[in-house]
């Protein structure tokens, strides 16, 4: 079984077991704060189920209807997970606010705290496992599910502290107050996850990734690569697509241009931790390029070389040759 599928299947099975344990703790204590954690565990199960399906789709090969592959389904999976988290948080806040006014009887908090502590520790371990696997195999779905479980672990830790305070002080209203605070934290976590996934669905530039790509090109720059501009990067699951314009000497024939483009492709795929597909538009040099072109023995040079213009995110992403910027 593929590592990504194995990881999310482990998370799904564990989520089901932990959900049952948390609801057992709620029926034991009748605590709103514990119900908060149990309700979020339902989201864990639903999210992991859809995540498993989205990873299955993302691993399918490109086809006629999906020439860029199926990787973007992972952004949709993360979006759905973020929405489910936020909805769970909203329901928790309203339910807890009601019980703050009309409190219910709670008991056996010590036993409940032990159960929640155990589930929180397990979520912490599984969360780190998913995040590490997601980073290794470049899966936003696994990272999102892992971060969700880490959020759940933090929620459980806060919940255990709250249960201990209630147990020691005897202040029943703290149960609902703590639940409301945890509900707002859950809503914020859902918002952050949704915001990131919407950016991916809308092809928002990953500027950290663009910075890395430009740095790789700058560090491995060759004399015929006069400038690079109009660079854009889009991520489709684990795959990366880059399109840009490279300026080459205008007297290069197609074989020479093809050689340079193939070299750029090889260098980027060697240094960037994604399977990268490049679409490079070749531009011919103009007299204005001579000042920063270091081609030796150039028979058509009209101006002396004065020095390279360092490539950075600002000038590489503009749709202008560098002498126009």
Automatic annotation (TrEMBL):
It is a multi-pass membrane protein. The chain crosses the membrane at residues 7-29, 41-61, 73-94, 106-129, 149-167. Keywords: Membrane, Transmembrane, Transmembrane helix, Transport. It holds the Pfam family ZT_dimer. GO terms for cellular component: plasma membrane. It is found in: Membrane. One of its GO terms (molecular function) is cadmium ion transmembrane transporter activity. Its main location: membrane. Residues 210-285 form the Cation efflux protein cytoplasmic domain. GO terms for biological process: intracellular zinc ion homeostasis. Residues 8-202 form the Cation efflux protein transmembrane domain. Belongs to the cation diffusion facilitator (CDF) transporter (TC 2.A.4) family. NCBIfam families: CDF. This is Cation diffusion facilitator family transporter. It comes from Pedobacter duraquae. The lineage of its organism: Bacteria, Pseudomonadati, Bacteroidota, Sphingobacteriia, Sphingobacteriales.
